[in-house]
Every structure is written in C-alpha cells, then in structure tokens.
Amino acid sequence: MGIRTRWVAAGAVSVLLLGAGGLYAFVGDDGGQSGTASNGEEESTSELTLEDLGLDEETAEEMDFSKVEEAFEVIQSQYVDEVDEEDLIQGAIEGMVEGLDDPFSDYMDAETADQFMESLDSQFEGIGAEVSMENGYVTIMSPFQDSPAEEAGLQPNDRILEIEGESTEDQSLNEAVLDIRGEKGTTVTLTIDRPAADDPFEVEVERDEIPVETVTSEIYELDGYRLGVLEMTSFSEETATEFEEQLEELEEEDIDGLAIDVRGNPGGYLNSVEDIGDLIVPGGEPVVQIEDRNGNREPYISNLEEEKPYPIVTLINEGSASASEILAAALKEAGDYDVIGETTFGKGTVQQVMPFDDGSELQLSMFRWLTSAGNDINEEGVEPTIEVTQPDFFYLPAISVDEELGYDDTDDQIEIAQEILAATGHDPGRSDGYFDEATEAALQSFQAEENVEATGVLDEDTALLLHQAVLEEIRDTDNDRQLEEALNTLLEQQ
After folding, report:
1. Number of compact structural domains in the chain
2. Which of 478, 480, 490 shows the shortest CA–CA distance to 227?
3. Averaged pLDDT of the chain
4. Rounded CA gap, 462 and 39, in Å?
5. 50 vs 68, 105, 148, 291, CA distance in Å?
6. For residue 64, what pLDDT is reported?
7. Would you say residue 43 has pLDDT above 60?
8. Distance from C-alpha of 29 to C-alpha of 329, rounded to nearest angstrom
9. DSSP state of 224
C-alpha cells in the first residue's frame, strides 16, 4: 500500500481549506505541480520519498518494526476470533496517530476521507461551524456568521459532549464532523458543555446550505470621514479575489480608513491570506513564516508596491483562527497597525494530507506557521493592541427550557432569561436565577411585545423568542463595542 502526497503549488508552501477542524495543508516544492483535490480542478501527485519523511536509507533500515510485526502475526493467527487484516493495519495507524496527542493529526479510512473531501467543496450543507479537538473534546472553534450554528447560539470553546445522544469521547474529529453534517432541513441535537454554564445543555440545530460569499463591505460616514469595513467570514479559494474587488470599490469611494473584520473567521487557504497580504501588508515585510521540525523557516514576503495612504485596523475575537490570525499578526507586526477586540483562538500548525492507494488518508501536522516577526502563537493566540469586550449578553449560553418555569422557581435558565430580558429592555432587576414577581412582570411585558399570550411563564416557545431577541441585539451594530472602537481609532488617526 503506497503513500503519495498531493500538491497545491502557490509559492514554496500552499495550504488547502479546512472543511471543519483546523487548517489543513497540501505542501509542495513549487515544482510546477498544481491542483486541488476538492474542487474538480487538475490534480497531480508525487511519490513521498524517504527524504520527505526526514529519513535516509540507512536510518530506515535500522528502524526495528519486529515488535509490530510479531504482534500483528500473533493477533492474526491466535486471537480467539478471526480478524480482518485491514482492520489491524488501520488500528495500528490510528494508534500511532493517537500517540501524537495532536488534535489536528488524524487518520481517515477511505469512506471517511471521501466524505471529508466533499466537505471541502465551496458549497456544502451542515450547521456552519468550525471545530477542533481540544484536550480530548470536540470543540467549537467558531460558528460561521449567519449560520445555523450561530442561530442556535453555539459559541467558541463550546465542547460537544454528545451528538444525537451518542458520546463523542471515542470519536476522531472527522468522525464527529461527519455525524454533525447532514442534509438541509434536517436537525442534529448536540449536548454542549460551556465554560460559563453550570451544567451541560442540549442545542438543536437545523442544518442548512452554508453561504459561500466570504467577503462583504460597508462604508460608515462619521464626522465627515468615510470609513470602510471589510468583513471576511472565511478564507476560501475565492476570498482573495473577492477581497480585492471589494477593496477597489471602497477605494473608488475615497475611503479615509479601513477596518478588516475577521471576527469569527475560522481560517482557510494559506495562499488566500498570502494574496490578501500582498494587497495590504507593507511591501517587503513577511506575511507569514513556515517552520519545519528542524527550525528551517520559509517566509512569504508581501509584494505590495505602495503602502496604503489610509489607516488600517483589524477586528479579532476568540473565534478568529488560523488564516485570520496570520493576517491579524502580519498587520500588527509588519505594519504596526492596531488590532482591536479579544485574543484569538491560537492555531499555529499546518497539516499535510497524504492519501494511501486504498483511498484512506493520513493528516499529519508537518509545519508551524509563525508571525511576520517569528512568533509562535499556537495555543496562545494573537493579542489585540486595544482590548475591547462586547456587552455581557453577547456571551450568554443558549437558553434551553425543558419544562415550564414560573414564580418562586430557581434555575440557571431563569438567570439566562433574566439577562436577555434586561438586554431587550424588560429589566427584571435581578439576574440570580430566582423567579420573583419582577421577573414575572418583565416576562409578561416581553411576551406582550412579541404578540403572544402574556402568561409570565418561561416555556419552550418563550425561550425561543428570547433567543431570537438576543440574536437581534447582538447583530445590531449599535451594540458592537468592538466595531465602535475600530471606527473611533480610525478617526483618531486622520
């Protein structure tokens, strides 16, 4: 069973978009080979050599696999039941990968690999969230904006304990991803453990087609200045082109400053962020550096011919990961531009995907990416130059009510409801989870505003209305403290 590696050429190192779970790389030597495995374009392969694996022939010959071979032969010939040879081989590979204790390295059988590659397509159906394996837990990195995951209230660092009542404890990351994905209109129930919540809770998410537009722009006119905001939801194969087009349109409108918003952006193609770096990072400065296990570094240098004549700031939060962190760090370090918001997720490794002849694939962390100044942000994240948190209701757990709650009850879901009521203008005067008369009156006021029977009881339907109401507050730019700070910072730099 041979092993070969798939290349995508775009400079010395190229990276393929992650479907869900980190930044996965197809790394090549820029030898003229090109193609992607997920979008139907031309693909080429190359044999993986001993040199690629960091071995010479002498070292390879000295490696003693006799113990593995002996165990294989004993199990195959003497185990109480007949065993499938392929199952043993796959189990051995899975065991080696598991021994790495690396959330982004994984082995997929042929069926899983095929389904995973489908998830890399520019259009797919699912819940719209990026996940990773953190400390043994399948963990939300970031819900896509305006996705079912965001609608359901999922947040970065939410741990997925169960999928449809089945524990994720023994699942690989990709197995969990494939269980979460599904056809538009179907639902999946996730059991969530959130750091801010007292107990795990269930979230029902209706799957949908995930939007493919990755760049949007808007102009804010403040104090006579025109300030552009470019928002990127991911770094797909078309993002750099979309970014350039939107940037040109903003510049044609004579903007006086630019805010680049990568909050909640889970990353994607490395070559996409490199291309964007060529548009905004000062020329001659590194956009990113790729480091191998021996400490050898390969920088990607910005080719921007003329530095932008207006100030630039970047918006980040804990849902900004991977390629988003590369861009934020490049602007912060190479251009000395302000970065506003909260410390990012902290993913600083690059994976290479190596398919076997039978269709299975090994995803292996092969490189680290370093910031333009050579800093390793893995598990650390990119810190903002101006730290700004959002109002408390931005961070509330999803409200989930299984049975009616009313006067004199005490429950953590009542506490969430009280905070939402306060955020929507129906302040109950307390947020400790005790359902008093003021809470009842506030809830009745909210129900009347929503044109439903004002029972003053917190039931499942009212909980859904509260959730939808707080989402509207979160999406209201008047409540966006981070955006407000970004615009004010641009004004100060005029």
Report:
1. 3
2. 490
3. 83
4. 43
5. 20, 20, 45, 19
6. 66
7. no
8. 25
9. T
pLDDT tens track for 289-309 = 999 999 999 999 999 999 999
Determine contact, residues 313/327, Cβ cutoff 8 Å: no
| Ramachandran angles phi, psi of 208, nearest 5° | -150, 175
Strand 286-291 versus strand 361-370 pairing type = antiparallel
Q: At CA 492, angle to CA 489 and CA 494, rounded to 5? A: 115
Nearest to 174 by CA among 19, 365, 388: 19
Predicted pLDDT of residue 211: 66
> Token pair for residue 252?
């044609």
For residue 236, the model assigns a pLDDT of 82
- The reply to whether 384 and 276 lie within a common domain is yes
Active site residues: 322, 347, 351
For 212-235, write each residue's pLDDT tens digit: 678 999 999 999 999 999 999 888
Using CA atoms, how far residue 61 sits from 54, 58, 322, 330, 356, in Å, is 14, 5, 38, 43, 22
Domain membership flag for residue 227: yes
Q: Which of 333, 368, 391 is the last residue before a domain boundary? A: 391
Q: Residue 219 sits in a domain of what CATH number?
A: 3.90.226.10
DSSP-derived pairing of the beta strands 386-387 and 361-370 = unpaired
Residue linked to tokens 């200045």: 225
Owning domain of residue 424:
393-477
